[in-house]
Amino acid sequence: MTSQVSSPAEHTDGTVVGEQRKPGGAKDVRRLDRVIIRFAGDSGDGMQLTGDRFTSETASFGNDLSTLPNFPAEIRAPAGTLPGVSSFQLHFADHDILTPGDAPNVLVAMNPAALKANVGDLPRGAEIIVNTDEFTKRALQKVGYDTDPLQDGSLDGYNLHPVPLTTLTVEALKEFSLSRKEAERSKNMFALGLLSWMYHRPTEGTEKFLKSKFAKKPDIAEANIAAFRAGWNFGETTEDFAVSYEVAPAAKAFPVGTYRNISGNLALAYGLVTASQQADLPLFLGSYPITPASDILHELSKHKNFGVRTFQAEDEIAGIGAALGAAFGGSLAVTTTSGPGVALKSETIGLAVSLELPLLVVDIQRGGPSTGLPTKTEQADLLQAMFGRNGEAPVPIVAPQTPADCFDAALEAARIALTYRTPVMLLSDGYLANGSEPWRIPDLDELPDLRVQFASGPNHTLQDGTEVFWPYKRDPETLARPWAIPGTPGLEHRIGGIEKQDGTGNISYDPANHDFMVRTRQAKVDGIEVPDIEVDDPHGAKALVLGWGSTYGPITAAVRRLRAGGESIAQAHLRHLNPFPRNLGKVLQQYDKVVVPEMNLGQLATLIRAKYLVDAHSYNQVNGMPFKAEQLATALKEAIDD
């Protein structure tokens, strides 16, 4: 056996860091530093499941990874059509990575529609594995192919691997008592087995998963396992795949700890449960199903053992109404939704501002307006979160930056809501919600103490010496009003949306009182303690790129590329969008140019210009997809040179 360093041009999966040639005609094994794989097929072909299983095995192997699921909004889109294509992209590496990758090195296309929808994203020399059984004349015509791309030379620039996946799967399952249609459904497991062989992925976890998933149908479980093994064996024996690839674990990319793969919505759900435990409060979720937030409702419904109550309401308004009622009753109250749901919830959010009760409003943003793009990502709800209510109704805003960071963002949103007695908006998005990455499970002593003190007795003395309870008598440091649980003797008080008198909570139409209450609620939000923004500027740059939310990965990857090319650029990322960090204005003034990339038409840039009088330059994208690192690097380079 010999080992040698090979040129990066030898294979498009990533830089080739070594090659092992096995004796006796055995297949070669090449070592790579990273790979980007995309599975694509009909929305009924199981591409999301296939990608998820490959991701789980990759995480257990110890690679760093980032994923990008992409699927139609329809439950079952028209088979064999371009709108019906579902895909799952996975980027995994032996080092720290930040994005799902710009361009796949490997495409698994289950039909002509999947090939046509995705081939334009591939670099020359990429691997294409196609299910030839689906390339019928009718299927080709359905997506506009005049000739068969597998035969007409249009794919000559790629490493094409034609594989009759359906036929091979049916043949592998002939010993099972399955109809041909039932057997064909396992072709995604055959493809998963083949890719698992190609990249030396573990297999035990997938077989265990299949046995669990189909526990009530053991014959189906065994059939899927057989198809999975057949795919592995096909890779081992066929002459078409002469090389397999290894991507070593990312041992140096992670601090010491216990890790698991986690999606943004799952991390957020775990963060909410943890917050309720740290606050010693029951968790109540009042929600109405909506893409892409429904997974949080589904996950929280599994955790009754932690005192979690989930209520699937009849509509968005009922969901938040129930949550606000739970907050009044002493629960850590949450409502989850997406942009259209926030619009419907806006009146009740305003009521929560007036009542000054803790409430978490989780907005998993998607493409809009109206129904828009339910399964695609966007960052276009920032101004709605800031101003989308009648009257002066300020609400703190927190935004996670990666899927794993959704856990910490949930804890931070809960801290603010409980400490300052206010509704809080948490702005995630579809890219974070459905994407996944490794997450270090925190130690218990790392978690914040979120316990609160409920009002237990009178808090004010009248001039005649009578002790009374004033529901709007505030903490001098936080300006939070007391949280009085209904039924506590002597703490009876009025609630409602009509303006309250300062201190007493009585209904008040006094102009001076209203002015005072409006300014006090604003001062409470403005006074929230948030960490200063940190700036990554190792070279004393003149230009700063400022981001928020899910743009963190693409921005950081782009900045790394620019610095590797000799450019000097600073980077800062916002988690708190209301209030802004106190040092943000000073930071912005230090740079000649500020560039703000956003998946909207410039909402953060608008706020920055208005508040700090800084000529922030917007770089915007609203195509339902996250930024690509190379695209951002080019745009930032142009901004630097301008």
Compact summary:
This protein is of the alpha/beta class.
Short descriptors:
globular, 20 helices, seven-stranded mixed sheet, disordered N terminus, alpha/beta, 642 residues, single chain
Description:
By secondary structure, this protein is α/β, with parallel strands linked by helices. The chain is built from 20 helices and 26 strands. A seven-stranded mixed β-sheet has the order 13-12-14-15-17-16-24, with helices on both faces. Strands 5-6-4-7-8-9 form a six-stranded mixed β-sheet, with helices on both faces. Helix 17 (552-564) crosses helix 20 (629-641). It starts with a strand and ends with a helix. Residues 1-13 have low confidence and may be disordered.
Give me the secondary-structure topology:
Layout: E1 3-4, E2 16-20, E3 28-32, E4 34-42, H1 47-61, E5 64-70, E6 85-93, E7 106-109, H2 112-118, E8 127-131, H3 137-142, E9 159-163, H4 165-172, H5 180-184, H6 187-198, H7 204-213, H8 218-237, E10 243-247, E11 259-263, H9 264-279, E12 283-287, H10 294-300, E13 308-312, H11 316-328, E14 332-337, H12 339-355, E15 359-365, H13 382-387, E16 397-398, H14 405-420, E17 423-429, H15 430-434, E18 436-440, E19 460-461, E20 467-468, H16 511-526, E21 535-536, E22 543-548, H17 552-564, E23 570-574, E24 576-578, H18 584-589, E25 593-598, H19 603-612, E26 617-620, H20 629-641
Parallel strand pairs: 3-10, 4-7, 7-8, 8-9, 12-13, 12-14, 14-15, 15-17, 16-17, 22-23, 22-25, 25-26
Antiparallel strand pairs: 1-2, 2-3, 4-6, 5-6, 11-18, 16-24, 19-20, 21-23
Helix pairs in contact: 1-6, 4-6, 6-8, 7-8, 9-10, 9-14, 11-12, 17-20
